[in-house]
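Look over this one:
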Amino acid sequence: MTGLNRQRAAMTDWLIDPTANVIASLPNLRLPTLILGADNDKQEPAANSALLQRYINGSELLIDPQLGHAFPFEAPARVAEDLARLTR
């Protein structure tokens, strides 16, 4: 519940003040970042993933053209392979 409550609070803050410096802080990330997305995701459009990549220096973006919002469940082997490659 703690994680869910934190996510809800962050989403609420974003809706109240979308200029809340979230985007400005992304270039400060200094760790390997893999951004996974899916073209058929109706809840989190692939454009959002592309925006994240634009602001996170050195990040890698992988968008699957055939999957939807539940892509970790639709293609678990692919997601596991992508994550394993990032950690090598």
Summary: Helices lie at 2-16, 22-25, 46-55, 71-74, 76-87. The longest helix spans residues 2-16. The chain has a mean pLDDT of 86.
